[in-house]
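Translate sequence into structure tokens.
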Amino acid sequence: MDWQYDGIPLHPLLVHLTTVSVPVAALSAIVVAAWPAARRWLAVGAPNIGLVALVSVPLATSSGEWLEHRERETALLERHTHLADGLLPSP
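Result follows.
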């Protein structure tokens, strides 16, 4: 898959989506579990936010790997990919 739009890589956008959606999904799950009144207004939103978070992680990873193969190898890129690999659960 080509991970760019009009020549601009989608990786930064997908990483920001992941960075926002994962903590928001976790917070909404905590609120739903701890505050019964919140279940009425988060009944649909919390699972949808969780789904966005779940899907955004592999998308960000795939777009990052695509971008990594198109960039010149530097120490900074190596460090970035090493940190990103540490965020994924082991298979």
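Note: The helical segments are 11-34, 38-42, 45-68, 75-87.
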